[in-house]
Design goal:
- One of its GO terms (biological process) is replication fork processing.
- Belongs to the CENP-X/MHF2 family.
- There is one protein chain.
- By secondary structure, the chain is mostly helical.
- 61% of the residues lie in helices and 0% in strands.
- The chain has helices spanning 16-25, 36-63, 71-84.
Length: 85
């Protein structure tokens, strides 16, 4: 991702089936089910996290004087991002 791109251009898509499987892994009882509305809601939260991480990483790259986002920029913003959520 180019750090100079407009943050509003950042797009993300989350596969709801993947979200459902990840959430199911957290259940202790195998009989526990999750509704489609809950899966969509968790998917929206995951999508927001992805977009916010991308935007913050772009800003971090710009602060470092770089025009390309590297993994170091993502690593630098993740602790604060996780605390904010």
């Amino acid at each position: 991702m180019n750090a100079k791109d407009d943050v509003s251009d950042i797009k993300s898509s989350v596969k709801l089936e993947a979200v459902k499987q990840i959430v199911r892994l957290q259940f202790k009882d195998g009989k526990t089910k999750i509704g489609d509305d809950a899966v969509r809601l968790v998917g929206e939260v995951v999508q927001l996290l992805i977009v916010e991480a991308a935007a913050r990483s772009c800003n971090q790259a710009l602060l470092c004087g770089q025009s390309v986002v590297e993994m170091e920029h993502v690593e630098k913003v993740l602790p604060k991002l996780l605390l904010d959520f």
